[in-house]
Design goal:
This protein has 2 domains: about 100 residues, no CATH class; about 40 residues, no CATH class. It is built from 6 helices and 6 strands, in the order αβααβαααββββ. About 30% of the residues lie in helices and about 20% in strands. The chain is α+β, with helices and mostly antiparallel strands. The protein has a 4-stranded antiparallel β-sheet with strand order 3-4-5-6, with no helix packed on it. Strands 1-2 form a two-stranded parallel ribbon.
């Protein structure tokens, strides 16, 4: 981590954390390396934060959109500060992508997509209350589960 900090590296962290394959027999053996990789993946963002390395989350390989916030919550539960997780989803991602002057934070002149929630964003019982896309409110149906809100413009 110190080498990354010294190099002023910008790191993109996948939230597609490894999981036990569903097709694997319940009594099948897995290597220690596989088990460690699965256990340690959610801890990486906290280690980057502690080392002072700029990082952002990416979701490209996720099968379900709801897994983005769910897996960010795993990183928070593994020691990442909640505000650092939000920055990894917003301003850090925009900065690393070279778009921090247009997106990533709530400022005049920037594109604003916002999610207002009741409770902690990373809590299991979080409820989506309002969504804004390009600064305009989007009607949100009752969100049956975290990260699965349906809306109409």
């Amino acid at each position: 981590m110190e080498e990354l900090k010294a190099a002023k590296a910008r790191v993109v962290v996948t939230l597609d954390f490894p999981v036990r394959p569903r097709t694997l027999a319940p009594d099948a053996d897995e290597t220690l390396e596989t088990l460690r990789s699965r256990a340690n993946a959610p801890k990486v963002p906290a280690a980057l934060e502690k080392a002072g390395v700029l990082f952002a989350f990416e979701s490209g390989a996720l099968r379900e959109p709801a897994d983005f916030v769910r897996n960010a919550a795993k990183a928070v539960n593994a020691g990442l500060a909640a505000d650092a997780a939000i920055k990894a989803m917003t301003i850090n991602a925009a900065t690393i992508a070279g778009a921090g002057d247009r997106i990533g934070s709530i400022e005049k002149g920037k594109i604003a997509n916002l999610l207002l929630v009741e409770g902690d964003l990373f809590a299991e019982k979080m409820r989506i209350r309002q969504v804004f896309v390009d600064g305009r409110p989007v009607a949100v149906d009752e969100a049956p589960a975290r990260g699965t809100a349906r809306g109409t413009r």
